Amino acid sequence: MKSFKIIEIKIEHESNFIILDLIDGIIINKETSEDPWLIEVTTSPDFKDILEEFVDKEVDLLVTITRPTNEPARFKGVFNEMNEIDEAVSLIFSGDIIVQNPYYAEDLLSQLIDEGFEGEELLNEFKAMMESKTELKTSDD
Fold this sequence. Notes:
Strand order of the largest sheet: 1-3-4-7-6-5
Distance between the termini: 36 Å
Largest sheet: 6 strands, antiparallel, barrel
Number of strands: 7
Order of helices and strands: EEEEHEEEHH
Helix content: 10-25%
CATH class of the largest domain: Mainly Beta
Radius of gyration: 16 Å
Mean pLDDT: 88
Number of helices: 3
Shape: globular
CATH topology of the largest domain: Pnp Oxidase, Chain A
CATH architecture of the largest domain: Roll
Strand content: 35-45%
């Protein structure tokens, strides 16, 4: 097993992100075939009411590990449980890291141009989608 310290975690919700007030967090690669990654984070109890609707549901996360300068990884899995502990809330997720195509930036730019974006609008959309690691449309979509 391998583990990494979580520096930042965001939960995707309605095409936006909820940035958790992270107290501490760890992501563990269990090196198993099913749901190989386990995430446990503690956050402020102020987030409890917001997060209750996500428990036992599939979630998409952006997780930055080790250093703030690292690119966030896209995580897809289940929000398994939420527990109150002392002055915090503990959250547990299990799932998988979504590995993106090494040509993601080029493919994204091509898709945005095909959709008619140009100039400043193209740049803004490109930056937003690069930050969110949005999955690209396929010919099946």
